[in-house]
Amino acid sequence: MNSVALQDILNAYKGKQLFVAIHAPQGCGKTTLSEYLYNSLSDRGYNVLVMSLDDFYYPYDIMKKKLNEYNNDLYKYRGLAGTHDIYNLNECFRKLKFGKNTFIPIFNKSLRDGFGDVEKYKYIKKKMDIIILEGWMIGYTPQVFIDEKFTLFNNQLKKYKKIQDFFNLWICFDTDNIDNIYKWRWSAEKDLNENEFKAFMDPYMEIYKNYVCRKNNKYTLDINRNILE
């Protein structure tokens, strides 16, 4: 997975700034992939910035207010469309595109008794050659016909188009069995018991069952995270 993503980026870079979206399910190894890409591309002399959609969750107080306003069974926790500060992400991308000084939030999921909050900011003060954003749902687009229980998610998803429009390269990973996602995420879980974990993952699994990333450069992973031919 790592080498495939790296080669896609190297093939796409033509001397002009490159915005890369990596759409990949939870547990597939996005953090490891991001570290690999940063190190490999930096070693080749590129100015690289790796960002996570997770860092753009709303701060604690705003998140609490949003979830209360949504009052939706799928929105008991952060994670789904509508829990990210899309305005701030758009502003960060716009500044990065024009080489302006940019503050990137760092979200700590362990703060506030596990509810999470913005902990600090990373200051970017030089022009980046390659900007990479990874996220579990960044490649999804709204559907025309959808079950009523997904109406909120579907409507909130429309706001992400302004972010998607920045990207000139998509790299999308999927799996041949969505149960793999649950197993991957559970194997990495350290803080929740099994019942708590199921309650946390159920909304995500509902989305995985009903939405598909239809962007280019799509790869399918097996249970061992190997790319299927």
Word description of this protein:
It is a single chain. With 229 residues, the protein is of the alpha/beta class. It has one domain (2-219): Rossmann fold. The chain has eight helices and seven strands; from the N terminus they run αβαβααβββααβααβ. A five-stranded parallel beta sheet has the order 2-5-1-6-7, covered by helices on one side. β3 and β4 form a beta hairpin. The longest helix has 17 residues, at 194-210. The protein is globular. It starts with a helix and ends in an 8-residue tail after the last strand. The mean pLDDT is 95.
Element layout with pairings:
Layout: H1 2-12, E1 18-23, H2 30-43, E2 48-52, H3 60-70, H4 86-97, E3 102-108, E4 117-124, E5 130-135, H5 151-157, H6 161-164, E6 169-175, H7 179-188, H8 194-210, E7 218-221
Parallel strand pairs: 1-5, 1-6, 2-5, 6-7
Antiparallel strand pairs: 3-4
Fill in the keyword field for this structure.
single chain; 229 residues; alpha/beta; Rossmann fold; five-stranded parallel β-sheet; two-stranded antiparallel ribbon; 7 strands
Distance between the termini: 12 Å
Indicate the mean pLDDT. 95
CATH architecture: 3-Layer(aba) Sandwich
Name the strands of the widest sheet in spatial order. Answer: 2-5-1-6-7
Secondary-structure element order, as H and E? HEHEHHEEEHHEHHE
Strand content: 15-25%
* Radius of gyration of CA atoms, rounded to a whole number: 17 Å
Q: Tell me the total number of β-strands.
A: 7
* Total count of domains: 1
Instruction: Supply the CATH superfamily name.
Output: P-loop containing nucleotide triphosphate hydrolases
> What is the CATH topology classification name?
Rossmann fold
The level 1 CATH classification is Alpha Beta
Contiguous runs where pLDDT drops below 50 for at least 5 residues: none
* Helix-strand makeup class: alpha/beta
* Number of helical stretches of at least 4 residues: 8
Largest sheet: 5 strands, parallel
Q: Helicity level, as a percent range?
A: 25-40%
What best-fitting shape do the alpha-carbon axes yield?
globular
